[in-house]
Amino acid sequence: MTTVAVTGAEGFIGSHLVEHLVAHGHQVRAMVQYNSFSSFGWLETLDRDVLDSVEITLGDVRDPGSVNGLVKGSEAVYHLAALIAIPYSYQAPHSYIETNVTGTLNVLEAVRHLDIPRLVHTSTSETYGTAQTVPITEDHPINTQSPYAASKAGGDRLADSYHASFETPVVTLRPFNTFGPRQSMRAVIPTVIAQIAAGTREITLGDLRPTRDFMFVKDTAAAFHSVGTAPAEDVVGRTFNAGTGGEISVGDLVTLVGKLMEVDLTVREDEQRLRPTNSEVMRLVADASRLRAATGWTPGHSLEQGLEKTIEFFREPSNLARYKTDLYNV
Predict the structure, then answer these.
(1) What is the pLDDT of residue 60?
(2) Burial class (CB in 10 A: 0-12, 13-18, 19+), 329
(3) What pLDDT score was predicted for residue 278?
(4) In sequence order, what E strands does the chain have?
(5) N or C: which end of the chain has fewer CB within 10 A?
């Protein structure tokens, strides 16, 4: 049984990745951001038979000592820890640099000096900005339209530089818009579903025009695992998109969710949910053919299948109770 390390393990995608890794026979060291409540985030909801193969440690990627202790002796590191909310990056850009750039630097340094065989670094489709050509390949220009996107692009460039300078065995995965159970209400799909599940029929959202390539979280977890275990010559030093190749506008998405949940909806635009005009990314749709060719990965869920599973999650009262559906989650 190989030991792997995961940063950001307590979060939405991180907790699903931990489940996936355990299901595929790995022992997982899971870093949870230190907090005085001893909260393990979404890891606390995992089945006991999963947690039996998980060693949870409180730490912080901004601290080199925390990172060194986490990754030492592991066969692979999956680096997911990040500040991710775009609206909050307008308010606290320094925090994004400290976590997404300096934190990534700490992970790269630890992997380099401790001779870890594989590092999977997490990027984001937001680094592309509004699509200039579609579908978006990995050769699309980088155009960061928010402090969040800029901080993630900074981490990406560091990862590239460490491979070029030190032959650090890093591979970058660039997921498009992941959704599913456990996602926070800072994202559009849980915002819509949770409001409906709480009984609301007038949904408050931002701009309904942007299109996104939405991918179910279990498929994202499988994409991470695919680049973490593929032969080094096929993936190391490369960047891979992970997406479905389909796109839907936010407005059409709301209509689809309403249909699946069998409710009639009205949508009210909330100005505080709108990005600054030049910061809104209007279109994102992935070309993931490079990932398929290198690893054989393909998404296993349609948009409708993923939405059904997400709706089921939010309709469970104990899950819905974790969310503040009447607040705007930055």
Answers:
(1) 97
(2) middle
(3) 72
(4) 3-7, 27-33, 54-59, 76-79, 119-122, 170-175, 177-179, 202-205, 211-212, 214-216, 239-242, 248-249, 266-269
(5) N
Residue 165 in tokens: 């300078």
What are the mean pLDDT values of the chain's consecutive 10-residue runs (330 residues total)? 95 98 98 96 97 98 97 98 94 97 98 98 96 96 97 98 98 98 92 92 83 97 98 98 96 93 84 67 94 98 98 97 79
Local structure of residue 328 (DSSP, 8 states): -
d(CA 21, CA 182): 18
Q: How far apart are the first and last CA of the chain?
A: 40
The two tokens of residue 266 are 């009205």
SS (H, E, C) 108-151: HHHHHHCCCCCEEEECCHHHHCCCCCCCECCCCCCCCCCHHHHH
Q: Output the pLDDT for position 275.
A: 61
Nearest residue to 240 (alpha-carbon basis) of 296, 185, 191, 197: 296
pLDDT of residue 233: 98
142: exposed, middle or buried (Cβ count in 10 Å: 0-12, 13-18, 19+): middle
What b-and-e string marks burial along 56-84, b requiring 16 or more CB atoms within 10 Å of the CB? beebbbbebebbbebbeebebbbbbbbbb
Would the pTM count as exceeding 0.90?
A: yes
Residue 296, classed as helix, strand or coil, is coil
Predicted local confidence at residue 274, as pLDDT: 59
Residue that the structure tokens 């999956």 belong to: 78
Closest by Cα among 213, 85, 62, 220 to 149: 85
Q: Which residues on neighbouring strands pair with residue 30, listed in sequence order?
A: 6, 56
| Structural domains in the chain, sorted by start | 3-179+216-242 (3.40.50.720), 188-212+246-284+301-320 (3.90.25.10)
Q: How far apart are CA 165 and CA 176, in angstroms?
A: 28
| Cα 71 from chain centroid (whole Å) | 20
